[in-house]
UniProtKB/TrEMBL annotation:
The gene is mutY. It is an enzyme of class 3 (hydrolase). Binds 1 [4Fe-4S] cluster. Belongs to the Nth/MutY family. This is Adenine DNA glycosylase. Gene3D superfamilies: Helix-hairpin-Helix base-excision DNA repair enzymes (C-terminal), Hypothetical protein, domain 2, Nucleoside Triphosphate Pyrophosphohydrolase. InterPro entries: A/G_AdeGlyc_MutY, DNA_glycosylase, Endonuclease3_FeS-loop_motif, HhH-GPD_domain, HhH_base_excis_C, HhH_motif, MIG/MutY, MutY_C. It comes from Alteribacter keqinensis.
Length: 359
DNA sequence: GAGTCGTGGCC
DNA sequence: TGGCCAAGACT
């Protein structure tokens, strides 16, 4: 057992926290029943994403794809469109692949052991523990950022929560707690406490239901925990993008590669180009069999900040003749139909500036 | 172990 | 205003 647990009153803590949760939990769409599929979808959407952001996406997604079978049979592009704006798009592609596995290997029923769930694409230790405990009420740990924050304060653990080894330490601790109470309610209670009371900044210790158990509170060090190493700032990339229009009023869009950043989403032709003359963009167009645009002008600048990159995009518009010999990833679409393709937010900004403003 | 992979809200 | 964050997983 972890040495920090020596003076910790495990049973009292588990009971008091679980009682608090049952009286104070929020009404959330994925808490209306115990459907393992819905809980799974919610857990994937909630990865690194706020509850308020997820709620409308979750409701739309479940009405579009109510069962694993429905999601398995959907077009990938339809799934990505439903995910548009949520970010981390590999979550959507991995979820659909995993749901296909569940449909084929488990008859469409989400398996109920951590070992089996862990094999599914996009499901790691946290999500596997969350599904098995929340949907099937099994005594597994589900350690996310909330749980590490709460437990680091309760036990004054100063390990860097950015490290994988730290998460494992907290998993061991939670495993030794969750067997003493209702696993579904207890795991959700830890996260709910982190979301509502034991918040990253200015935690509400005065109204905390387990303040008597909290070592950080006793020592007055709650604002120093959890410990998290600073990450380095994102790297800037100068980009040039071009909205090319033909004589029919169509614009040229391009599907991004199958892997990497924003995989399989659509965009306007663009490339990294920090030149003043736009030579890289011209080379890029030439490589795709596109003639020099008859007119081209710089109409906008778009900044888009990712976790690890900043795109500084100079946006151009140009006229070009329709060319039959487009390479596979390029496509002419009517302006009104651009909205039916999944675009990252960076290029939605271009749509707003260039396409919609023209109408 | 350290990078990669999005987005919007917050103070 | 911009750095930091929010229910992580994959390579």
């Amino acid at each position: 057992m972890d040495k920090q647990l020596n003076e910790f009153n495990i049973e009292a803590f588990c009971n008091e926290l679980t009682d608090w949760y049952r009286k104070n939990k929020r009404d959330l769409p994925w808490r209306e029943d115990q459907d393992p599929y819905k809980i799974w979808v919610s857990e994937i959407m909630l990865q690194q994403t706020r509850v308020d952001t997820v709620i409308p996406y979750f409701n739309r997604f479940i009405s579009l794809f109510p069962t694993p079978k429905a999601l398995a049979e959907a077009e990938e592009e339809t799934v990505l469109k439903a995910w548009e704006g949520l970010g981390y798009y590999s979550r959507a592609r991995n979820l659909q692949q995993a749901v296909k596995e569940v449909t084929e290997d488990y008859g469409g029923v989400v398996p109920d052991t951590k070992k089996e769930i862990l094999k599914l694409k996009g499901v790691g230790p946290y999500t596997a523990g969350a599904i098995t405990s929340i949907a099937y009420n099994k005594p597994e740990a589900a350690v996310d950022g909330n749980v590490m924050r709460v437990m680091s304060r309760l036990l004054t653990i100063y390990d860097d929560i950015g490290k994988v080894t730290t998460r494992k330490r907290f998993e061991d601790i939670v495993e030794s707690l969750v067997i003493h109470t209702n696993p579904s309610d207890f795991n959700q209670a830890l996260m709910e406490l982190g979301a509502l009371i034991c918040t990253p900044r200015s935690p509400s210790c005065l109204i905390c239901p387990v303040q008597e158990h909290c070592s950080a509170r006793a020592e007055g060090v709650q604002d120093l925990l959890p410990v998290k190493a600073k990450k380095k700032p994102p790297k800037a990339k100068a980009m040039k993008a071009v909205v090319l229009e033909n004589e029919k009023g169509q614009v040229l869009i391009e599907k991004r590669p199958d892997t990497g950043l924003l995989a399989k989403l659509w965009q306007f032709p663009n490339c990294e180009d920090d030149s003043r003359t736009g030579e890289e963009l011209r080379r890029y167009l030439y490589e795709r069999g596109l003639q020099e645009p008859q007119t081209i002008e710089n109409v906008q600048h778009v900044r888009h900040v990712f976790s690890h990159i900043v795109w500084e995009i100079d946006v151009f518009t140009g006229k070009i003749e329709e060319d039959a010999a487009l390479c596979g990833t390029l496509k002419w679409v009517n302006k009104e139909e651009v909205d039916t393709y999944p675009f990252p937010v960076s290029h939605q900004k271009i749509i707003d500036y260039v396409i919609k403003e023209e109408k």
